[in-house]
């Protein structure tokens, strides 16, 4: 059986070496429409993430990138989310969970999510948020199995995309205070 390795990227100087592979993975997912609710991003988004804007994880098989995930601190709070009464320095946003189309359904996305939960705890992020298209039932179910709850469904971004906002409290289960 092929081993899936999850690597936490913690060194922006070397992490950017994965940029082309991650951009190619994103383009493949768009081209094959394997992730129909994927918000389109350009290379600069991934470069900013890899050079310090986010805490990142990649999934590798035989040194080939098959998945990518990013976790961003909520400082500043993104304009498309409603701030809550929590210390901003303890809040994070799970931005993207990207899996190679041929590896979907094999637990890669779950492993990337679990990696971000671990990274969050290591970096003092106790309150996690995520947004998911309401018809993306696979992602919704994965996050709910990890303990997230759906707070609301609303339109976001300039494109007025429908998104469900999900929340997880890593310190006490699942309660938004």
TrEMBL record:
**N-acetyltransferase domain: from which residue to which, for each copy?**
4-171
Note the InterPro entries from the entry: Acyl_CoA_acyltransferase, GNAT_dom
Instruction: Kindly give the Pfam families that the UniProt entry links to this protein.
Output: Acetyltransf_1
Any signal peptide, and if so, which residues?
A: none
Q: Which SUPFAM superfamilies match?
A: Acyl-CoA N-acyltransferases (Nat) (SSF55729)
Q: What is this protein called?
A: N-acetyltransferase domain-containing protein
**From what organism does this protein derive?**
Sessilibacter corallicola
């Amino acid at each position: 059986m092929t081993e899936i390795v999850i690597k936490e990227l913690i060194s922006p100087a070397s992490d950017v070496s994965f940029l082309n592979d991650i951009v190619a993975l994103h383009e493949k997912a768009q081209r094959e429409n394997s992730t129909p609710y994927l918000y389109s991003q350009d290379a600069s988004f991934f470069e900013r993430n890899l050079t310090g804007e986010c805490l990142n994880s990649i999934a590798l098989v035989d040194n080939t990138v098959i998945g990518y995930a990013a976790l961003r601190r909520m400082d500043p709070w993104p304009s498309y989310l409603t701030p809550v009464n929590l210390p901003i320095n303890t809040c994070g946003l799970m931005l993207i969970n990207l899996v190679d189309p041929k590896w979907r359904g094999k637990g890669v996305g779950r492993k990337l999510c679990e990696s971000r939960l671990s990274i969050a705890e290591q970096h003092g992020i106790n309150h996690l948020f995520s947004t998911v298209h309401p018809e993306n039932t696979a992602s919704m179910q994965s996050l709910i199995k990890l303990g997230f709850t759906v707070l609301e469904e609303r339109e976001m971004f300039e494109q007025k995309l429908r998104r469900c906002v999900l929340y997880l409290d890593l310190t006490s289960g699942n309660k938004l205070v």
